Amino acid sequence: MKALLKYPLSILAIVACIGLLVILNKESNRRHHLLTCQGLKVQVLDSARGTFVTAADVKEYILSEIGPWNGKRADSILLWKIEEMLAGKAAILGSEAYMSTDGILHVDVRQRTPVARFHSSTSSFYADASGFIFPIRKKYTGRIPIVDGDFPFTEDKDFKGEITDKKGRAWMNGIIGMLDYIQNSKTWKGAIVQITSSKDGSLVLVPAQGEEKFIFGFPEKWEEKFKRIEKYYKYIASREEGKKYSTVNVRYKGQIICR
Length: 259
Known about the structure:
Blueprint: H1 2-34, E1 39-44, H2 55-65, H3 79-87, E2 92-99, E3 104-111, E4 114-119, E5 124-128, E6 133-135, E7 146-149, H4 166-183, E8 192-197, E9 203-207, E10 213-217, H5 222-237, E11 247-249, E12 257-258
Parallel strand pairs: 1-3, 4-7, 7-8, 10-11
Antiparallel strand pairs: 2-3, 4-5, 5-6, 8-9, 9-10, 11-12
């Protein structure tokens, strides 16, 4: 008899728990319906890597494009709309908006992190590690490499996004990979002070020391090319101290051409 009673009692307990959850959910929805927004707190999660987007920027975006928040009912604030609006800002990688039980609207933002700045006679822009390009922001405080000259692609001055031209996108990915190699190299980090591109995308590198300019070619097979530069310093520059070269061409496999 006890065994027969065991299962009905278990079912009743489950039903009671479900009923309690429904009641609590209704009460939570009722409280949320009555809750009004008491303020906005914006947090830029990765601000330690450089100030590219500030909390003040985000508040201004929300105020101008979504509207004021104080005193509004919580259920009238469309959190998804805030996130969608912020996703359209070039400097913002992503965001999360939520309302806490004390009536504070929270917006957590992740900013794009530029890995290089590009400057030509007609345009200037940043690129992040994915190759996404976006306009210059003067308030940015981080120090990043600069690539100047002309570039093998053409986009509108205020363009943001991935480069549409296939060859141009491959060139940009090559630049980013090369800069990452330099940044993580004990030998080359801080040793290159200028990178200049020609219209076809070939590069010239200027080191911090010496008078040579290194004709590097396209941003590909950079590890092999940097090894050829190392060989130049070890076997040529060190043995011909009285002779100075203005250009050292390392773009071709197995060749170091000094002029």
